[in-house]
Design a protein that fits this description.
The chain is an alpha+beta fold and 132 residues long. It has one domain (15-130). 42% of the residues lie in helices and 21% in strands. It has two helices and four strands. The protein has helices spanning 15-61, 74-82; strands at residues 69-70, 90-97, 101-109, 122-130. A four-stranded antiparallel β-sheet has the order 1-2-3-4. A hairpin with a 3-residue loop joins β2 (90-97) and β3. The longest helix is centred in the first third of the chain and has 47 residues, at 15-61.
């Protein structure tokens, strides 16, 4: 009876697959959270860069002082061009302040992978530069 197999009551076959399935949800959730955190930090960096670009362009090319707030001037166009197309929900404002100063304000929402999540992460940055 050397070639016959004796059935065991406590067989471990398939336990690795069960353990893998138990952990895969946690691993995927961790990867999802890490990607969303990366997206949030990248959005902050891109909004800061766009705000500086808009303020610098508005201070060099000038903002009409008779129109104190503009959303269509050269600073606004430069800030909009500096933002990537992924950031769709954004608001850019360039203002001429008293004392020959220009302020650029950029507000943008962080793009999320899952649109159904109730996360409302908004980034707001302001930069003031002297005209000239």
């Amino acid at each position: 009876m050397r070639g016959t197999r004796v059935p065991r009551l406590h067989d471990d076959e398939g336990s690795a697959a069960v353990e893998f399935m138990a952990w895969i949800g946690f691993v995927l959730a961790t990867l999802f959270c890490a990607y969303e955190a990366y997206t949030a930090f990248a959005t902050v960096e891109q909004v800061e860069n766009a705000t500086r670009t808009g303020a610098r362009t508005a201070s060099m090319q000038g903002v009409a002082l008779h129109e104190p707030t503009t959303k269509i001037g050269p600073g606004t166009r430069a800030a909009s061009a500096a933002l990537p197309e992924v950031i769709t929900d954004r608001e850019i404002t360039v203002e001429a302040l008293a004392g020959d100063t220009v302020r650029c304000t950029v507000r943008a929402k962080v793009p999320l992978i899952a649109n159904g999540l109730p996360l409302n992460i908004t980034v707001l940055r302001r930069v003031e530069m002297p005209v000239g």
